């Protein structure tokens, strides 16, 4: 410390630096769920079809009754609540934009913050997400699931 630098100045500068670091750490979360953290997004996609209407996602027989399958490349999750019923949802979690990863226990699960969504309607059943997954339309033709 030099004669021109007071102890009060050093303490004030240290306090300001600490406050700046704390604010920067807290501001990484936008607070409104608007952040687009993509996460790992690993799923069971087969890579075919794309997002266009009519694009084949896979075989209907690949979707277990009471479960579902994430098609990572097409950003869609297909569920099968009952034997002849197929539902589809956008695979982007409504909490912070991570990709959902698995379907277990009747729920679509996001690995980032453990949000869970009902396989019947995409509504949130647990975790921090408050909004449902966006529905998508699918049809089964010739044993294949296709985006409608």
UniProtKB/TrEMBL annotation:
The entry's keywords: 2Fe-2S, Disulfide bond, Iron, Iron-sulfur, Metal-binding, Signal
Pfam families per record: Rieske (PF00355)
InterPro entries xref list: Rieske_2Fe-2S (IPR017941), Rieske_2Fe-2S_sf (IPR036922), Rieske_Fe-S_prot (IPR014349), Rieske_Fe-S_prot_C (IPR005805), TAT_signal (IPR006311)
Signal sequence bounds: 1-24
Cofactor: [2Fe-2S] cluster
Domain Rieske: 55-147
Region: Disordered, residue numbers: 26-70
Source organism superkingdom: Bacteria
Entry keyword annotation includes Phosphoprotein: no
Compositionally biased intervals (Gly residues): 40-57
PROSITE patterns in UniProt: PROKAR_LIPOPROTEIN, RIESKE, TAT
Gene3D superfamilies in the cross-refs: Rieske [2Fe-2S] iron-sulphur domain
Function: Iron-sulfur subunit of the cytochrome bc1 complex, an essential component of the respiratory electron transport chain required for ATP synthesis. The bc1 complex catalyzes the oxidation of menaquinol and the reduction of cytochrome c in the respiratory chain. The bc1 complex operates through a Q-cycle mechanism that couples electron transfer to generation of the proton gradient that drives ATP synthesis.
Protein name, UniProt field: Cytochrome bc1 complex Rieske iron-sulfur subunit
Native species: Streptomyces daqingensis
């Amino acid at each position: 410390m030099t004669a021109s630098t007071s102890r009060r100045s050093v303490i004030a500068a240290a306090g300001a630096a600490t406050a700046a670091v704390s604010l920067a750490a807290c501001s990484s979360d936008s607070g409104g769920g608007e952040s687009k953290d993509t996460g790992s997004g690993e799923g069971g996609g087969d890579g075919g079809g794309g997002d266009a209407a009519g694009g084949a996602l896979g075989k209907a027989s690949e979707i277990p009754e009471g479960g579902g399958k994430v098609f990572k490349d097409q950003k869609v999750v297909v569920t099968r609540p009952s034997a002849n019923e197929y539902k589809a949802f956008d695979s982007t979690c409504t909490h912070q934009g991570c990709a959902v990863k698995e379907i277990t226990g009747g729920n679509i699960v996001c690995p980032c913050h453990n949000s869970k969504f009902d396989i019947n309607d995409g509504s949130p059943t647990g975790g921090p997400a408050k909004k449902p997954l966006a529905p998508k339309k699918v049809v089964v033709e010739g044993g294949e699931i296709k985006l409608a």
